[in-house]
Amino acid sequence: MMPSGSGIWLGSGGIITSKWVPDGPRAKPIAIALATLLFATINVQAAPATKSSTYLPQASPKWLPSFPKQKNVITSWPPSNPKAALPSGPLSTASFSLEGYPTMNEVVTNAAKDPNIIPIMKAIDWTKVPSAPVTSDAYGDEYPASDPYCWWTQTLCTTPKIHYIPPDISICPKAGTWGLTYDDGPMYYWPVTAENSKWAEPNLYDYLLKHNDQKANLFYIGSKIIGAPAAAQRGFNDGHTICAHTWSHPSMTTLTNAEVVAEFYYSLRMIKQVLGITPKCWRPPYGDVDDRIRAIAWQMGMRTIIWDRDTNDWNINGDQVAPGPGAITYATANKTVDNWIKSREEGKDNKNGHIVLEHELSNSTITLAEFWLPTIQKEYQTMPATACNNIAQPYWEKQFIYPIQGTVAVDTNGEPTGVKAPQI
To answer: How many Cα atoms occupy the beta-carbon half-sphere of 49 within 13 Å?
Structure first.
């Protein structure tokens, strides 16, 4: 159990506090919980990366500052010295100078007046951003059944109603593939104690390294990086693919346009300052995304990655404050994964592979991630979600070229890049 007075994060599939507090999470609408639970059993199909010349053009974000290179961080993939041992063991306690950021774990409420945000607001083509209403936590029946804005929270929609941005990446196209993703990192507890640190990074990263040097997508929260930058660098140096997961982990459709831009900007800025990269991928907290949010993300250089299977590890009633009476046991979470594996073994799951939601969030989620991994590796070809969708260059910095499942590397818009990438 967490020590008295410790704050806690809950994850993408569940609930997250808006700040570090000892009295647990704020409530979220039941619509989100129901939609997430549905994904544990229902395979909702969505188009993978598809070729198209009709998508809005993207460019490397020019509004991000330039930062001095951090020490001991890789500058390409494969590394310039591929024979060098990957780091392991305790993380460095070296201090980092990370200034100029908003309050940790809180939405930037003054975003419209933020001098960092104003130039981006002017650069975005707002005629290409649908005027979907800002939602509230009180989801009701007022949203049209026709789903005009492809709102995942209400309908699990992943194919936009606008033609100029691509569908969400939500599956691995090849059957028998497990798209390994971990949200809400880098994992750490506060205050840092011996017991808390037992489950903090590099616990999971060490485990992945020892188990076939397994790679994954890590969806990092900007506010978590500022608290554990060395952990973020370790995950990156190990060869995991880093994607953005916003600054403070809010329900994105509840934010104004300026607040949405700020969530993206400060998460990208933090990742660039600490790791030296600019991700072209992001995941919405709680899966809460619609075409307004997708269009802003796309114009800020990122494609949306979601999931089609949820382990519900975030909802374990263990060391964390679970979201209400619906909290599940370890046995229930294990049964969910066991049923997926059984379906695959029986030949009932052979249409496509899956992107699976897991978390580096608490001792519960780390325990389950490590418990499941060996079996998953035996039954599935296991890789990052970007790799199974043949995205070899997930950053705007082109010197990072990662292995892919297929033979043709594509950009996040689905177009072949001409880059030669090794196969997994």
So the answer is: 26
